[in-house]
TrEMBL record:
Residues 3-157 form the RNase H type-1 domain. The keyword Manganese does not apply. This is ribonuclease H. Pfam families: RNase_H. It catalyses: Endonucleolytic cleavage to 5'-phosphomonoester. It comes from Alloscardovia macacae. Belongs to the RNase H family. GO terms for biological process: DNA replication, removal of RNA primer. It comes from the Bacteria. Monomer. InterPro entries: RNase_H (IPR050092), RNaseH-like_sf (IPR012337), RNaseH_domain (IPR002156), RNaseH_sf (IPR036397), RNaseHI (IPR022892).
């Protein structure tokens, strides 16, 4: 099928009890210009979703983008709408620095979810048509954002209850199995997955007090904020952009200028105080002479 119009797809990821809770991903087409509303995905579907019994919302967001790209190859323009700044930055901005640093962040630690991000980069590189990412505010009444959120969350809920097998791309399973989310993970028996380390033994079930104590000392999974469109500090502190450096330099210059003005004002104040002291002294001297003039003769 020849496509001569822009295709728009909404993507989303969801995780219950994030991190390491039941997770889901989904994508939904909403190409208004499509004559007859025929799906442009190679599967013939206008929407799809999946997930696993354990994971994070970030893994879900990245998986949704990856599956969207794989279902929509070609030379037509593709627009991906998502409420995840994390997914957008991983796919377009942060990845540049990670490549230069050998897929290590600023702390010299391996980049999280690297296999999914590398797969997204490969799809973007191979695709002949343009791909644009558009951020939309989540849970703000956007019809397709709400629809794809329902798909992702719905799959996560069913996977968490054991009603449905997990559905993930190979890279997604690998990230889950070889990451900190393998405990309790249910992998379909017919799924061929690259396993670089054995699954850990299930840990004893913790009591409520123990879970609360553990939650206080464990580092929480970073998550994107939906309160602002473009935050000054990105979600991954490992990449300092040129824009941020420029802003910091400008702020430093303004601070230095303000300090100079303050110093100048302080000098003027000292001069004014000195003049006032001199005026008071002269006034006191004149007053004394006036009061004692008669006693001099």
């Amino acid at each position: 099928m020849t496509i001569n119009f822009t295709v728009t797809v909404s993507t989303d990821g969801s995780a219950l009890n994030n991190p390491n809770g039941p997770m889901g991903w989904g994508w939904v087409e909403h190409t208004r210009e499509n004559p007859g509303g025929v799906s442009t995905a190679i599967s013939g579907l206008s929407e799809d979703c999946g997930g696993a019994s354990n994971g994070t919302n970030q893994i879900g967001e990245l998986t949704a983008v990856l599956q969207c790209l794989r279902e929509h190859p070609g030379d037509y323009p593709l627009v991906i709408e998502t409420d995840s700044q994390y997914a957008i930055n991983c796919s377009t901005t942060w990845i540049k620095g990670w490549k230069r640093n050998g897929w290590k962040n600023s702390k010299k630690e391996p980049v999280k979810n690297a296999e999914l991000i590398k797969a997204i980069d490969a799809e973007l590189t191979a695709r002949t048509g343009s791909v644009d990412f558009v951020w939309v505010k989540g849970h703000a009444g956007n019809f397709y954002n709400e629809k794809v959120d329902d798909l992702a969350r719905g799959f996560a809920e069913r996977a968490g209850r054991g009603e449905i097998d997990g559905k993930m791309p190979e890279e997604g399973w690998s990230v889950l199995i070889n990451g900190p989310y393998a405990r309790g993970l249910k992998v379909p028996e017919n799924r061929e997955t690259r396993i670089t380390q054995p699954l850990p033994e299930p840990e004893p079930k913790l009591g409520l007090w123990e879970e609360q104590l553990l939650a206080e000392v464990e580092e929480p999974e970073p998550h994107e904020s939906t309160l602002v469109d473009q935050p000054l500090f990105h979600e991954d502190n490992g990449i300092i952009t040129e824009e941020l450096i420029t802003r910091l330099n400008q702020a430093t210059e303004r601070f230095d200028a303000a300090a100079q003005r303050l110093q100048l004002a302080s000098e003027h104040m000292d001069q004014a105080v000195a003049k006032l002291d001199e005026a008071i002294r002269r006034f006191d001297d004149g007053s004394w002479k006036s009061n004692h003039q008669d006693t001099l003769f």
